User: Which sequence fits this backbone?
């Protein structure tokens, strides 16, 4: 036979209410502000990245408010409505007005976020500018290599039937356009110039992740995906693989250098010798 | 009723084996599912400790781990090829072999016939078959740790070609094959179960138990069964196709022109993205398979321990149904960076954010249920309240990931890991704990130790936040999922201290679960005897003996006269009125509408 009266405990209500308010509602918000000073996004270095960051900030603010107030309400309710034995709860099974309001308000907020998200997403995936530099990135277990079109500005043809161990890209050796293609192991990009990266893989799925540029696009064997962006800062950056690709997934790191157009052109000219 | 009165006395003639092992009694099958799942939870949880060891303390020597996994460790440190296998098996076990089986197989089996007033499931033999596909699936899955190449290592999502080509990763040698066979068996079991649940709810409800009087926990199980019946066959097909690709030379998922492990691949013409569509067409409904039953469990426990009707029953059923429907239309949000056309991404963003609306309704309804309640803090209630907090915290980070432009950055980072460990893993686990504390007396006829239950709650609630909340920040700093080490990248340099903290919190969280294990076993053996209705609850399962006899109801099946949430009805003598109480005599003063049992 159980004794239910032990569960009528205002002290437990106070404890749990306080825990939710202090640890979750307040603690959650404060640690986020603290994390902002130590573990936050790597500095943004692309044009669309600034838009993406703006959207992320907005989402943080909206969800942060909901997070704080819902957990706060939960904490307060738990504290406030812990049972006192002699009283009885109210009989309140329904309220259409209340329910409609908390159906419609979240709907309105979400539609706003959908619209903002759709605009940013459309901007990220807007048509590639005609003057964009074209670079092909190839993911292989466990390294990235890059192909530039070379002086003629055209990539040589590739096809699966030409693929071999020595030729993972499947380049057609008979195509003249491919003769001056430059294959290198680091990505150099001119600052403030649009670039479109054509992303491929010759074995398993990888994901082309440039944290500073807010770029991530899977490298899927059998197809070419693409992502275009405009670097806005000079410097050295890191390229990571973000999709589990095997034992060496964690070492599949690449280097990205953003420099002036002249410097990148000079470097490219060096490579083709 | 298909099960007759005579059948209820048949138990005396049953042998030990037909009664406890190859049993066709839904209660025994439910308990079998639950206990097996808890054993698997211990294994899955232990694997997560290995993950945290490696991420938090990569330079330490783990002598015992090398003794336990001689192939996975060298020089007392984890080998890089063991790590993906551990991650894969942790995810697979927790999603399919713990949460699905415990919440749907365990609670679904135990509660559906009892809450609708049936004597058993519609197809008891099929039900037994459903459970008995589960242990072989476990054996096959766990044996894969011992085969050449070790266990599957392509993630619980098993993306080909990594999972399709035998030399792509060691776990793809034999482990992946066993993984696929194991999953196929388990899925067949799930289909037997879900088919049974749906039929039972449609056909075996007691007299007076209209659908609008169904407890929310039963509604949730019913809708979960529909989800499972419609989505698991798609994964089943995909699993078979992948097995064909691996062993029979087909190329559903493997394109032409690949070079793997310095060898030219001979497959031609497949598409790896096809697997992702098939997998997530199950995979997303699957996360609702994990969260709908806890939603039902929590609704029941919150109402019962608030001594108040669940707020907005109609909206609760409506939002459960809306989630069920919408969950089939959101799978693409796992694939925003896969190379789908951007417009497809936009469409999936819309459906994904829309599914947040019914989720929000549920949260606010739970809050409204607490409003001006008389809250009783049982262990079950503590976990139910904890569930609401975890679900809110995890649900809100879903708003980030639903937006494809934001997801570009967060996809495949620890932000995602934090998100689903809150909204689906921890929240579902809290539902599992809440349900266990609540229905343990009915399952075993004994009470669990409430003092230990509460200690378990405090440690687990704090432990979950300490473990998973910081993972959001690892994700904002860009830390990728499933990486063996963060030391290769400069932008991840600052994360060592945080990862150490997360690991310590995770170890504490893991150790706290031993309290639950002890409490469960100890209470089972020598807990105080439970009476029929220890929580003063309205639903039908509490109106029979604890534990209920074979056939559940003795000579007479119950007749239902009201909805399950008549708590604190004004004018009634008690603060609860069981569903079996006829409308008129129990209530004096309040006029009652016979059709739904609510005061007019």
Assistant:
């Amino acid at each position: 036979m159980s004794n239910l009266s032990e569960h009528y405990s205002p002290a437990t209500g106070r404890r749990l209410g306080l825990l939710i308010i202090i640890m979750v509602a307040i603690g959650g918000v404060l640690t986020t502000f603290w994390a902002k000073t130590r573990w936050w996004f790597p500095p943004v270095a692309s044009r669309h990245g600034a838009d993406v960051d703006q959207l992320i900030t907005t989402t943080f603010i909206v969800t942060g408010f909901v997070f704080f107030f819902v957990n706060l309400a939960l904490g307060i309710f738990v504290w406030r409505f812990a049972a006192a034995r002699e009283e009885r709860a109210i009989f309140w099974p329904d309220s259409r007005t209340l329910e409609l309001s908390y159906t419609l308000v979240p709907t309105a907020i979400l539609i706003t976020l959908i619209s903002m998200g759709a605009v940013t997403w459309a901007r990220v995936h807007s048509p590639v500018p005609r003057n964009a530099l074209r670079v092909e990135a190839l993911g292989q277990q466990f390294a990235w290599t890059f192909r530039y079109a070379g002086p003629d500005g055209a990539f040589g043809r590739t096809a699966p039937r030409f693929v071999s161990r020595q030729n993972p890209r499947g380049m057609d050796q008979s195509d003249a356009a491919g003769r001056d293609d430059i294959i290198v192991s680091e990505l150099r990009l001119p600052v403030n110039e649009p670039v479109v990266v054509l992303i491929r893989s010759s074995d398993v799925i990888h994901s082309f992740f440039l944290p500073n540029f807010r770029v991530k696009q899977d490298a899927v064997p059998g197809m070419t995906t693409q992502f275009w962006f405009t670097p806005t800062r000079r410097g050295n950056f890191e390229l990571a693989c973000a999709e589990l690709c095997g034992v060496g997934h964690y070492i599949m790191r690449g280097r990205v250098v953003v420099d002036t157009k002249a410097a990148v052109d000079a470097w490219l000219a060096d490579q083709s010798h | 009723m298909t099960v007759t009165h005579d059948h209820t006395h048949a138990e005396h003639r049953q042998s030990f084996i037909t009664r406890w092992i190859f049993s066709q009694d839904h209660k025994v099958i439910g308990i079998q599912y639950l206990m097996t799942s808890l054993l698997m939870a211990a294994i899955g949880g232990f694997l997560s400790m290995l993950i945290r060891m490696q991420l938090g303390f990569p330079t330490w020597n783990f002598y015992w781990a090398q003794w336990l996994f001689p192939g996975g460790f060298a020089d007392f440190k984890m080998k890089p090829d063991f790590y993906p296998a551990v991650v894969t098996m942790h995810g697979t076990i927790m999603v399919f072999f713990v949460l699905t089986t415990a919440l749907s197989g365990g609670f679904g089996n135990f509660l559906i016939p009892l809450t609708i007033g049936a004597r058993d499931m519609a197809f008891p033999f099929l039900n037994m078959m459903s459970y008995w596909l589960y242990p072989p699936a476990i054996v096959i899955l766990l044996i894969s740790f011992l085969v050449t190449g070790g266990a599957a290592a392509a993630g619980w999502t098993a993306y080909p070609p990594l999972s399709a080509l035998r030399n792509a990763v060691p776990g793809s040698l034999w482990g992946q094959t066993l993984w696929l066979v194991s999953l196929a068996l388990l899925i067949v079991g799930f289909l037997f179960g879900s088919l049974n649940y749906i039929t039972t709810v449609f056909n075996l409800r007691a007299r007076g138990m209209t659908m609008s009087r169904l407890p929310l926990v039963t509604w949730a199980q019913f809708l979960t069964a529909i989800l499972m019946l419609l989505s698991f066959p798609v994964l089943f097909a995909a699993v078979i196709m992948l097995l064909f690709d691996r062993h029979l030379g087909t190329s559903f998922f493997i394109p032409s022109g690949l070079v793997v492990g310095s060898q030219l691949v001979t497959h031609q013409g497949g598409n790896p993205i096809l697997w992702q569509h098939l997998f997530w067409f199950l995979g997303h409904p699957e996360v609702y398979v994990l969260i709908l039953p806890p939603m039902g469990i929590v609704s029941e426990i919150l109402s019962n321990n608030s001594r108040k009707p669940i707020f907005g029953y109609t909206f609760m059923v409506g939002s459960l149904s809306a989630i069920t429907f919408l969950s089939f239309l959101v799978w693409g949000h796992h694939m925003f960076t896969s190379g789908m056309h951007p417009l497809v991404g936009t469409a999936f963003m819309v459906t994904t954010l829309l599914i947040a609306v019914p989720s929000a309704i549920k949260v606010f309804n739970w809050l409204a249920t607490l409003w001006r309640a008389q809250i009783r803090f049982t262990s079950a209630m503590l976990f139910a309240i904890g569930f609401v907090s975890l679900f809110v915290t995890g649900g809100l980070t879903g708003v980030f990931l639903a937006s494809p432009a934001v997801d570009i950055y967060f996809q495949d980072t620890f932000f995602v890991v934090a998100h689903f460990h809150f909204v689906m893993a921890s929240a579902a686990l809290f539902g599992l704990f809440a349900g266990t504390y609540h229905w343990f007396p009915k399952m075993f006829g004994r009470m669990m130790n409430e003092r230990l239950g509460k200690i378990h709650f405090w440690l687990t609630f704090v432990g979950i936040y300490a473990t998973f909340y910081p993972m959001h920040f690892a994700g904002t700093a860009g830390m990728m999922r499933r990486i063996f080490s963060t030391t290769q990248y400069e932008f991840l340099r600052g994360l060592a201290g945080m990862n150490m903290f997360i690991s310590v919190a995770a170890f504490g969280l893991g150790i706290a679960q031993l309290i639950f294990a002890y409490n469960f076993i100890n209470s089972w053996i020598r807990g105080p005897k439970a009476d029929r209705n220890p929580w003063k609850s309205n639903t039908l399962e509490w109106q029979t003996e604890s534990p209920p006899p074979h056939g559940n109801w003795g000579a007479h099946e119950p007749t239902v006269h009201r909805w399950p949430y008549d708590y604190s009805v004004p004018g009634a003598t008690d603060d609860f009125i069981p569903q079996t109480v006829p409308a008129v005599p129990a209530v004096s003063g309040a006029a009652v509408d016979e059709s739904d049992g609510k005061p007019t």
Remarks:
- The mean pLDDT of chain A is 94.
- Chain A has four helices and ten strands.
- The helical segments of chain A are 10-38, 47-80, 96-124, 261-271.
